[in-house]
Amino acid sequence: MSQKPSVPLDPHAMAVRQLKQAAAHMDIEPGLLERITHTEREVTVHFPVKMDDGSLRMFAGYRVQHNDVRGPYKGGLRYHPATELGEVRALAMWMTWKAAVVNIPYGGAKGGVTCDPKTLSPGERERLTRRFTYEIAPIIGPERDIPAPDVYTGPQEMAWIMDTYSMISGQATPGVVTGKPLELGGSLGRFEATGRGVVITAREAARHLGRDLEGMTVAIQGSGNVGGVAARYFELAGAKVVAISDSKSGVYNPKGIESAQALACKDQYACLLGHELASEEISNQELLELEVDLLAPCAMEGVLTPDNADRIKAKLVVEGANGPTTPEADAILEDKGVLVVPDILANAGGVTVSYFEWVQNLQNLLWSEDEIGQRLEDILCRSMKEVLAIAQEKKVSLRNAAMILGVGRVLAASRLRGVYP
Ligand code: NAD
User: Fold this and answer.
1) Quick check: 3 pLDDT over 80?
2) Better-predicted residue by pLDDT, 299 or 8
3) Is residue 20 among the annotated active site residues?
4) Cβ contacts of 345 within 8 Å, gap of 6 or more
5) Fewer CB within 10 A of the terminal residue: the chain, N end or C end?
6) CB count, 10 Å around CB of 182?
7) 254-269 average pLDDT score
8) CATH number of 41-174
9) What are the Cα distances from residue 393, in Å, to 25, 258, 312, 386, 409?
């Protein structure tokens, strides 16, 4: 981001604060609240990778399992230079609430490797992925913990994980990861699921405000799996994407940017070029503050902070990314009357279709794209309705309402299971 926040971001402290804010509206036994504030298992590994020039480099990787009372741990793997244990811990916790909000039988986990994948060759990325999989193999598995793509990982990394795990376990095990290529048991609709879910929840939130996505202006931060796909679905819904960005900068045209053209430009030049897209170049910071109807942060956490929340002009913020809004910024946006669709609902389309992929893998089923699209719509619309009802009943923000719903389901399962031994 172009502007440094005045307080350094601590994603785990942020996640715990969100939990405590929701807990204030719930009746939770103190011991149980303490339990879900903690992660259940945190594995840090340091492992060597042979680089193309023959040298050996050490990497740090993490897998954090927050809670599995509702089902096997589930969550993505991130390759990013800023990835560290605290960030992964927060992301794992958000996964637990997310799976519970959409009521699918998973717990929450997350993982990552501290690296800059843009500087790694395909061979180095493959060796890093395979060795990392070997390191965490004892704690993952189709009935135990199922990774998926996240920032700078995708179907190819999932294919290497699936292959490595299958070699170790001595049998083809497609259910160990989701987000795989279709040829390896991936699901139709998984690649699109998160971005599509962002637009479904945006549409429902707009309806709640008495509006329609048709004709709305939209700014999207990030043009990867989530942002790029969301742009396409926003256009299909009749909205006008006026700005989109990548890690370097953004492009802005008040008349609209054709997302297919923007993504093709990014593919060709590895960046978004304003002149190629007949648009003005803007910074990621400027993008967030544009005069638009809807803002969809779809890149990294902690981008809406007390430093810029007051200058956000969108009336609707839909969090494609995990943790883009700090609790302080949340309060400012709420005071300004901005409706924020929280990450644990807005980007839950990904884990939902990951669940469909896993169910198909475990039962050797093949569902059609229509079937998957319809099930996704049903689950997200039902969840949105439940969250809106809690928000209205308890007079709380959508984030607090989604947390009350998700945390409530985790607690109900926890109480039934009790404490072993
Ligand atoms: P991706 O790797 O496909 O894309 C990441 C995008 O963010 C790219 O456009 C990149 O250029 C941009 N980016 C990276 N650093 C940035 C920075 N500092 N400032 C602005 N832009 C930056 O990743 P993704 O899968 O699209 O994930 C994006 C967000 O969505 C993450 O927060 C992730 O946790 C969340 N998410 C992803 C999924 C999924 O299914 N992939 C599901 C739920 C949530």
Assistant:
1) no
2) 299
3) no
4) 98, 101, 102, 201, 380, 383, 384, 387, 398, 402
5) C
6) 11
7) 94
8) 3.40.50.10860
9) 11, 40, 27, 11, 18
- pLDDT number for residue 9: 85
Please give the mean pLDDT across all residues of the chain.
97
What pLDDT score was predicted for residue 199? Answer: 98
**pLDDT tens sequence across 146-155:** 999 999 999 9
**Shortest-distance atom of ligand 1 to CA 148:** 40
Closest CA to 78 of 301, 407, 248: 301
Q: How far apart are CA 248 and CA 2, in angstroms?
A: 9
What residue type is 326 in one-letter code?
A: T
Q: State if residue 354 touches ligand 1 by the CB under 6 angstroms criterion.
A: no
Measured in angstroms, how far is the CA atom of residue 150 from the centroid of ligand 1?
Answer: 7
Q: Which CATH superfamily is domain 193-346 in?
A: NAD(P)-binding Rossmann-like Domain (3.40.50.720)
Pick from 262, 237, 243, 227: nearest CA to 346: 227
Q: 3-state class of 345 per DSSP? A: helix
Residue with tokens 């390896």: 184
CA–centroid distance, 27 to ligand 1, in Å, is 35
Kindly state the average pLDDT of the residues 226-240: 98
Nearest atom of ligand 1 to the alpha carbon of 154? 3
Residues of the chain with CATH 3.40.50.720: 193-346
Q: Note the pLDDT of residue 332.
A: 98
Tell which one of 118, 120, 178, 226 to mutate to probe ligand 1, the residue whose CB is within 8 A of the most ligand atoms: 226
Place 215 in a pLDDT band, splitting at 50, 70 and 90.
Answer: very high
Residue 325 CB–ligand 1 contact under 6 Å: no
In the chain, ranges of CATH 3.40.50.10860 domains: 41-174
